[in-house]
Design brief:
The protein has 146 residues and is mainly α. Among the domains are: 49 residues; 45 residues. 79% of the residues lie in helices and 0% in strands. Helix 5 runs antiparallel to helix 6.
């Protein structure tokens, strides 16, 4: 559909709405019929299902769901949405745990750097076994990993 056709059709639809809306206070049989016709026209216009969806949908539950969505909308998707929700919650939990691990490692690294800065001069004199030096080296290694 070309742009000029779409604009013309939209203007035509708006004009039809204006005629329906103009007499909305009248509750005659004819006005009710006009309103119902306009509503059904809009329902067909904004139906996003494939034109041959009846032939394409093989699962009865899916067809019933589509019919319900075109009408009163009493049905809802349950199992698939719950599974998706569960997967998303697990993914988010893993991401949060990873973030906490990274923050903890960063804090440990910062603490080790602070200890290194305050004890660097004393390291050679007081640490004969090299334990503090090993801790600081390990902290630097963790920092480079993240």
């Amino acid at each position: 559909m070309q742009k000029r056709n779409a604009v013309a059709k939209l203007k035509s639809l708006y004009d039809k709405y204006g005629l329906v809306h103009k007499n909305k206070g009248r509750r005659t049989d004819r006005q009710i019929e006009i309103e119902q016709d306009f509503t059904s026209y809009l329902d067909k216009l904004f139906d996003v299902a494939h034109a041959d969806c009846k032939g394409m949908i093989k699962i009865k539950e899916d067809w019933a769901f589509l019919e319900d969505q075109r009408g009163p909308r009493k049905m809802m998707m349950t199992q698939e949405d719950l599974e998706f929700k569960h997967r998303e919650e697990k993914r988010q939990k893993r991401a949060n745990e990873e973030l906490k691990r990274r923050e903890k490692a960063k804090q440990n690294t910062e603490m080790a750097v602070a200890v290194e800065g305050s004890c660097e001069g004393e390291l050679e004199e007081s640490d004969k076994d090299g334990d503090l030096h090993n801790i600081i080296t390990h902290a630097r290694q963790i920092e480079t990993d993240y």
